[in-house]
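Key result, reporting period 2: structure in, sequence out.
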């Protein structure tokens, strides 16, 4: 009878009827796992006592096998850390297993969903692969109140009860957080909602995905901003939608142009408070036109309230949803920019008659968001820390934005136009026609500058060149040097 060790990447099967000694069976199993790359360098293996107990064998064959693996350089013993797979492996030898044990290629055709077959593979662009100067979406991490946050996390760890280990009260999120989000949105964004309309999601991207599953059928036409947000476009493509790029001007999405392009579009996805990437704010007239279009055609508006918390000129702009009297707007927001992106918490405000549909999709997707950090965030908001932190960061980002605008104008003068500098954590540096912004973006990434080419945000054939520059993570004192580096890069100088 074979005895198999559990909890290991490579299963070790002991056959007591085999003529091969036990220590050799253990040695062979580990050696093959290392050679085949199943066990990686630095991977910790069980102690000889633990493995002997798992296999129900004497400790001696395990000790002998480990001694041989250590002697041949497959394992390395670390004081206080036990035994791990060595980083300095001997020359690889042919695996001892028969090829029939390996994964075989499928013999039949590749059968996947039709919309996946037409979706181009996602290859992360160079300007989204690193962390540092001008990377869009990065926050001033060094300014986050980590000590305060850690104390709230520790407090919740100490007070966890049996309910905290369950799935949570509802798939739409913690009641206490939904109440706090509702109160916050009513006051700061003039959103019309009750806690029963708020769904907690893992960031705005999931909010877009769920809205797409509820509202859109494959083949539906959807207005998207041109230029627009790459990841929103991908979510709609995954739903099988036909994207209709509608131009954005100084007043935001051009509703008249959208009507000419496709009057009967099923939905429009917009960022009216701070358009990505151009940073413009949709005018009141355009907002009313968009709502009128949606009401007349029975269409939907998905409002992504992108970076609305950080506005540096004029009074705060109220949400589009707050103007909607016919239940045509689905409002999406996130904590990623005010708190931090890896928190993966956002929210969707849903018209009451759609809430059951959204909840059903949510249950099918992942049964509900994790509850622990929802309650931490709810307390962070309730105790006033969220509002104080947002105010402090608004001042900080304003300073960094001013420094960046000044340096760009000094370095580039009239050859570059600064757009969208009134709000948010990024701005656009528009460049003369013909500037190879994608090529420059690739070169910049090698120099540690993470500049997003503006032309890559266009779906159409007439993109405008330039750079989308995030300033959230660039300290004010570092801005001049980083802009000078960008100028040198563009001029071809070393």
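The corresponding designed sequence is given below.
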């Amino acid at each position: 009878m074979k005895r198999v060790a559990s909890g290991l990447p490579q299963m070790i099967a002991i056959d007591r009827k085999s003529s091969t000694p036990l220590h050799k069976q253990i040695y062979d199993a580990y050696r093959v796992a290392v050679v085949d790359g199943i066990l990686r360098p630095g991977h910790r293996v069980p102690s000889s006592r633990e493995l002997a107990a798992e296999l129900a064998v004497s400790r001696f064959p395990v000790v002998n096998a480990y001694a041989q693996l250590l002697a041949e350089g497959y394992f390395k013993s670390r004081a206080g850390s036990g035994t791990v797979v060595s980083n300095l492996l001997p020359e690889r030898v042919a695996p001892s297993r028969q090829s029939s044990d390996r994964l075989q290629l499928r013999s039949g055709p590749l059968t996947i969903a039709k919309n996946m077959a037409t979706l181009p593979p996602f290859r992360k662009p160079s300007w989204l692969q690193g962390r540092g100067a001008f990377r869009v979406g990065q926050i001033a991490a060094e300014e986050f109140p980590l000590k305060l946050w850690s104390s709230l996390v520790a407090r919740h760890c100490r007070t966890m009860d049996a309910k905290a280990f369950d799935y949570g009260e509802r798939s739409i999120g913690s009641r206490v957080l939904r109440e706090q989000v509702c109160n916050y949105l009513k006051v700061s964004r003039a959103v019309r909602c009750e806690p029963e309309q708020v769904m907690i999601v893992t960031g705005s991207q999931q909010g877009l995905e769920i809205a797409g599953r509820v509202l859109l059928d494959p083949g539906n036409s959807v207005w998207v901003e041109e230029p627009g947000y790459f990841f929103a476009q991908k979510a709609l493509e995954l739903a099988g939608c036909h994207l209709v790029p509608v131009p954005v001007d100084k007043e935001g999405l051009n509703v008249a142009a959208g009507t000419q392009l496709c009057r009967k579009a099923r939905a429009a996805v917009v960022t009216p408070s701070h358009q990505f990437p151009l940073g413009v704010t949709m005018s009141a007239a355009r907002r009313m036109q968009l709502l009128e279009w949606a009401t007349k055609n029975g269409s939907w508006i998905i409002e992504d309230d992108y970076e609305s918390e950080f506005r540096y000129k004029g009074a705060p702009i109220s949400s589009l949803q707050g103007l909607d009297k016919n239940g045509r707007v689905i409002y999406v927001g996130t904590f990623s920019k005010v708190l931090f992106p890896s928190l993966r918490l956002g929210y969707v405000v849903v018209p009451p008659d759609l809430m059951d549909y959204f909840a059903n999709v949510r249950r099918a997707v992942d049964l509900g968001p994790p509850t622990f950090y929802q309650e931490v965030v709810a307390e962070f908001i309730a105790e006033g820390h969220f509002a104080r932190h947002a105010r402090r960061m608004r001042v900080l980002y304003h300073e960094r934005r001013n420094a960046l605008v000044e340096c760009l104008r000094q370095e580039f003068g009239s050859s570059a136009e600064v757009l969208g500098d009134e709000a948010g954590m990024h701005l656009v540096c528009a460049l003369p026609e013909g500037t190879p912004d994608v090529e420059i973006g690739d070169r910049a990434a090698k120099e540690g500058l993470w500049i997003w080419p503006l032309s890559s945000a266009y779906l159409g054939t007439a993109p405008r060149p330039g750079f989308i520059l995030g300033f959230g993570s660039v300290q004010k004192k570092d801005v001049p040097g980083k802009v000078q580096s960008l100028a040198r890069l563009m001029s071809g100088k070393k």
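The radius of gyration is 28 Å. The chain has a mean pLDDT of 88. This case is discussed further under Risks and Mitigation.
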